[in-house]
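This week, look over our next protein:
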Amino acid sequence: MSDAWQRLTPRLEELSHLRAAGALLSWDQAVLMPSRGTAGRAGALATIESIAHERLTDPRLGELIQELAADSTLDEGQAANVRVLRRDYDKAVRLPAALVAELARVRGVAYEAWTEARPASDFRIFQPHLERLVSLKIEEADALGHGEERYDALLDLYEPGMTTRKVEALFDGLVEGLRPLVEDIIPPAEERPAWLEQPFEAIQQDRLCRWLVSSIGFSFDGGRLDSSPHPFTTSIGPGDVRQTIRTQPNALLPSIYAALHETGHALYEQGIPEHLAGLPAGSAPSLGLHESQSRLWENLVGRRRSFTDFLLPHVKERFPAELGMVTPDEFHLGVNYPERTTIRIYADELTYNLHIAMRLQIELALFREELEVGDLPEAWNDGMEEHLGIRPQKDGDGILQDVHWSMGLHGYFATYTLGNIYSAAFYDKAEEELGGLDDDFHNGDFSRLLGWLREKIHSQAYLYPADELAEKVVGHGVSPDPLLRYLKEKYSSLA
């Protein structure tokens, strides 16, 4: 083992520990922290991020990276760690320490403002915080540097190598294929299946979700499942992967499919090899790849007939009065009921990516400085009308529904659709290589699919860039075609 690598290792461990502390504080803020702790927590997070930034931008670390980048004796894992660390270092040294600290502080306060504004359905509560965040994100993008336009720098934070030009081309092709399907398949108005909306006890929902995520393969020895205002998954460190869901008093499916979605993320984190955990290459190569796992379990598995047939008896066992008379056909249709909704996380597979296309359109306008934050509610509602033919009646169902902007995650939304595109291609390949997956799911057996994902994707961590890993898995470049084909076949059979 090279001397430079031995000198680098304790620095990587310290960075990993600092990030773990920040992740734990953020998880606690979302799940347990009392509301009066906002200012103190924002300060604590700002301090931790400042220390981590200082360590990452240490010139001596840069010298070690330079030395190791020229070392041909490194093994594959070490070389990948150096490559990823160099990318992180190059970005970090462009960001002033004061900007990093201020972003962390403002995010903490903005998140709490959002948690107040959303139930009140009042954008004015959140607006000044979002204005400050957008201003800081513009500073961040300009400091990082970008190619053709500022939004490139934000996309690259979550999807390395992705550009505005590339993502717009992907979305243009996908939206062009989706809109005729939506018009053909979703009727202007139709009564929803009655069983979808009725009281479902929160405790039983929670117990059902705990059983479900364990059945899929999530290990509670190395993770948790809790509640928060917006479902999310975070890895605190090796052996500590935490996910959250949110139950609703008058709906069951949102908690079930949030649990499946977050479990996809959590399984990825639990599948990172131990020898890479906590190191720069011990992560997914992009959020689109990470999202492919959540969307695969939520949709490609969770909404197919073999899975809903498996799930229904377990749901009836916990809710006999509410669902005792629901047939397998009715349950499957309810799970996949196509409709235009104002809420992204409740959207069916057919319309979901139109929600994302609208958000991409708005973010591009924001960072091209063609749109003011104060005009966002109206722009949002206009975008919903353009893409989905419906208009939110209140801020809580429109501009305030997502947590992302309160956390400074501008540039993130596109990764959801990229994940959908990847997931369809990955599932096709898994079925081609394994065969008989529907028989497995009908019997509640998910081990073969999870094993395939572990081997092909999870175990690879960040050894390869996202597009290279995807091509290694499926054997060719990934396009929207498998997703469009899957959606057309599925919803045509439901019509």
Summary: The chain has two domains: 3-145, 164-494.
